[in-house]
Amino acid sequence: MALLREFTAALLDRHGAAVEPIEPEGLEVLAPPPVRAVLDVPEMARLGFGTELPAGARRVGLEGDWLERFGLLLGDRGQWVERQAPPSEVPPPGDAERLLSHGLVLDNAVARFRGQEARWTRCLILAFRYTALSDEKREGLLWLGFNLGTGATLGELVARLRAALAEAPWLPVDPERRARAGPGWDAPVLEARLRPLLAHRVRQELAPFLRAMRRRLERDHGRLYAYHDDLRAQALKKLADLAEVTGDKADADRRRETQRVAAIEQDYRAKLDDLRHNYALNLTVAWVQALEVLVPVQRLALLVRRRKGERLIHLDWHPLARQMEPPPCDWGLGLDRVRQVCDDRLHLTEPAGQAPCPACGKPFCRACHPKTCPRCGAPAAVAVSPSIEDL
């Protein structure tokens, strides 16, 4: 929690509070009225961030409503930030062709190395906060990134770039380097690339939480069913025993047991509705911050050939992360390194983007025809990723 303590100290100091570090892992704060009102703390407060708290300290963590309080104090400051990484002192890779052989796998085309140069590129790193609420609560932060110069999804590179930038000095953006890095994306392009990737990452993050929730639901449902089934079986047994009995008393007993069976079934349905309501999943995903950063790269040019067509693409090797980014992808999430190339416009897609039509069996490119098969008109029926709403 050292980073959270540093962040809290810097935030409170910026808003006019007097802050003094205390041990173990705490802060002593003299808060002005605006800070007291937002954070709900007294004028003299002690805050603790570790497993062991200073005497009289309130615990501060990612759980609870502290993030909301900090968000109110921040307002919209820092939501969109632009910075420049320092020039790299890491030497460029010596064998670019060997590096590319591991960085791009083409299933149905060939690629030829055409050159390498030092460049600056524009990367967009976005932070989202998700909150999943069912019988329990799960929340966290997701970081997604794109290289706006090559169109690549950064994937695991985001964590490495963030770690490198955290240790680098904060530099203002050089206008000349900003111009050489190229323009950003417009809103529709960014949304089209971001939505499926965000849904995929949220599903990944919540998979253990959802599995545990389903296990608890199945356990509670099993107990509920077993309890009511036992009651219903007893009532039905009594009805069966009364089937051959005659007389007014037997008729009254049969009516009572029949009503009892109906009451048990009604109570079971009501308890089942309560169970569904208790385990219903409420998921919210909110944008938190965007960091647009200019970074130095080694840009590698490749000529992709498919039959008689050819296309020039670029991949960047990032000195800050010492890693090659995934290749560009015209259809799909673009997280892995396997691509197929279409015949018509040489789109690079994930293998599913060139899959056969489920109706007529003819393969076709989902980047060229995202909605229907060009041969028979059947729906494409292959989604890039489920949407947030599907979760």
Characteristics of this structure?
single chain, 391 residues, alpha+beta, 2 domains, 6-stranded mixed beta sheet, 4-stranded mixed beta sheet, 8 helices, 13 strands, 36% helix, 26% strand, flat
Please describe the topology of this protein.
Layout: H1 2-14, E1 18-22, E2 26-30, H2 33-39, E3 44-48, E4 58-59, H3 66-74, E5 80-84, H4 96-103, E6 105-106, E7 110-133, E8 137-147, H5 157-167, H6 175-180, H7 187-241, H8 248-279, E9 282-306, E10 309-318, E11 323-324, E12 338-341, E13 348-349
Parallel strand pairs: 3-4, 5-9, 6-12
Antiparallel strand pairs: 1-2, 2-3, 7-8, 7-9, 9-10, 10-11, 12-13
Helix pairs in contact: 7-8
Could you list the spans in which at least 5 consecutive residues all have pLDDT below 50?
none
Summarize model confidence as the mean pLDDT. 89
Name the structural class: alpha+beta
Radius of gyration: 30 Å
Element string (H = helix, E = strand):
HEEHEEHEHEEEHHHHEEEEE
Distance between the termini: 31 Å
Profile the largest sheet: 6 strands, mixed
Percent strand equals: 25-35%
* Count of spatially separate domains: 2
Overall, the morphology is: flat
Given the structure, what is the number of helices? 8
SS elements, strand count = 13
Q: What helical percentage do the residues reach?
A: 25-40%
